Hints:
Elements: E1 7-11, E2 16-24, E3 30-39, H1 41-44, H2 52-74, E4 83-89, H3 93-110, E5 114-118, H4 119-125, E6 137-142, E7 147-154, E8 157-163, H5 169-179, H6 187-194, H7 219-229, H8 235-267, E9 274-278, H9 285-298, E10 301-303, H10 307-310, H11 315-326
Parallel strand pairs: 1-4, 4-5, 6-9, 9-10
Antiparallel strand pairs: 1-2, 2-3, 6-7, 7-8
Helix pairs in contact: 2-3, 4-11, 5-6, 5-7, 6-8, 8-9
This protein binds 5'-O-[(R)-(carboxyoxy)(hydroxy)phosphoryl]adenosine (KG4) and zinc ion.
5'-O-[(R)-(carboxyoxy)(hydroxy)phosphoryl]adenosine (KG4) binds near residues 170, 185, 191 and 312.
Amino acid sequence: MTKKPIILGIESSCDETAASIISENEQGIPIVLSNVVSSQENVHKEFGGVVPELAARSHIEKIDWIVQKAIDDSGKKIEEIDAVASTAGPGLIVCLSVGLSFAKSFASTLNIPFVAVNHLEGHALSPKLNSSLNFPYLLLLISGGHSQFLSVLGLGKYKRLGTTIDDALGEAFDKTAKILGIEFPGGPQIEILAKKGNSNRYNLPKPIFNKGGCNLSFAGLKTSILKISKSIETEQDKFDLAASFQKTIEEILYKKTTIAFSKFEKENIVEKKIFVVAGGVAANRNIRSMLTNLCNEKKFKSIFPPIEFCGDNAAMIALVGLEKYKLKELNNFDHPAKPRWQLDENASYLKGAGVKF
Ligand code: KG4
Ligand code: ZN
């Protein structure tokens, strides 16, 4: 039996401090040995969003014990770790720098390789954790910072089919929640309130619904919700607005995912069509069931990674590290933190990011 690599992953790109140890089994399936995530919700909730300096300070305070706990939980010894992978971007530079510096020092002290990981690549490969899944597949990544459709063709091979031209979907949920007086991050609360409301009560806009291919836009929704919120008087009005927002998001995703399916099918001749939904918003049950129905209709197999691998975590970062380590795609210690880092280098930047309609 050959010794399988053991990789430490570190994530600190935004408001989660995370560390994980992974390896792989005899069949080459990546196995998560530990997965420790410490969220900073309590640090930021009174501010209605992530405050970069507070986030960075919190990462600095926690990173030592989070990494130690990940090693302890894994049952492995520090000397058994073969390489360290850390998110190097995209994200908040003050936050990225904490995990990245820690990872470089750790690798340097133990004299083991270091891998700089693109956070989006972690999300893109996350359905492979503890699971066997072949390329290619279509990915919808919906989180607090990103909303994109990507063809995932192989390690390092991604093609962006569509992206948000303004707010990310999680951001739209959080901003709507803030307008309704719910603490950050309000996305999960909106889902709960929506269940008590009438989703047909308010007619909300669907920006770029009939143009822009499978690109997305959510900023106009927030403006409309802000206007309507001024006339809200009762709790029921609040529930109705949350329900109308949830329904509008589902209608947008239904239409845009249908377009992404066609694009993916045109560009990839595959026997089995697979659709993966990842990122924090993938936890939304109504979105899950709507997209599952769409997949059944269009003959795609739907995959939703377990919730613990949907939101930000370090297991997905360790996974990219593992794959790159096996290919000897290692990085030097002068690798910078990259606040902006596209997965598909050929994709134009967000607007004014050059998304063309
Ligand atoms: O992937 P994630 O944990 O972190 C980022 O990379 O941003 O995603 C966090 C986002 C937040 O905006 C949060 O409100 C949203 O995911 N979210 C949800 C739900 N659970 C988390 N949005 C809607 N419904 C949910 N159930
Ligand atoms: Zn993320």
